[in-house]
């Protein structure tokens, strides 16, 4: 099956949408517009190919369940922004990159084999037994389990410093 070329106006529309959504959520797209639009084009190509926005810089399987972690914005965006000031493909960048204090470059791939989920009945664990700390937004109560709190709360848009470790 031959794929159609992605129209420039589709790329522009999605670029504008992603930029609006990113800024409204406390994130930033890469300022290199030409580079960023190529990534946006990759998202649209993958949408044609697979039916979802698989990261254009990673090899997708074509099985949504297997690729769920790399559907943009991927599960690795926030940890990458925290540690490297950009996500893996550099679509999203930190304030430091935005201000020109840091440049983008290649970063290590975080994606590894996902651990198998237990089959059957699961039991609740005490927070101290969880593999990752749980963070709570002090503004709206949003909870997330990860190494560090997100750059911004996806619910109320509060900045990272408004999160506390939930115990």
Describe this structure in words.
31% of the residues lie in helices and 8% in strands. The protein has 167 residues and is of the alpha+beta class. The protein has a three-stranded antiparallel beta sheet, with no helix packed on it. A hairpin with a 5-residue loop joins strand 3 and strand 4 (143-145). Helix 1 (8-24) crosses helix 2. The chain is globular, with a radius of gyration of 17 Å. Residues 114-124 have low confidence and may be disordered.
Describe the structure using short key phrases.
Rubrerythrin, domain 2; three-stranded antiparallel β-sheet; 167 residues; Ferredoxin Thioredoxin Reductase; two-stranded antiparallel sheet; 2 domains; alpha+beta
Q: Per the principal axes of the C-alpha atoms, what is the gross shape? A: globular
Main sheet?
3 strands, antiparallel
Query: What is the gyration radius calculated from CA atoms?
Result: 17 Å
Tell me the strand order in the biggest sheet. Answer: 4-3-5
CATH class value of the largest domain: Alpha Beta
Classified in CATH, the superfamily of the largest domain is: Ferredoxin thioredoxin reductase catalytic beta subunit
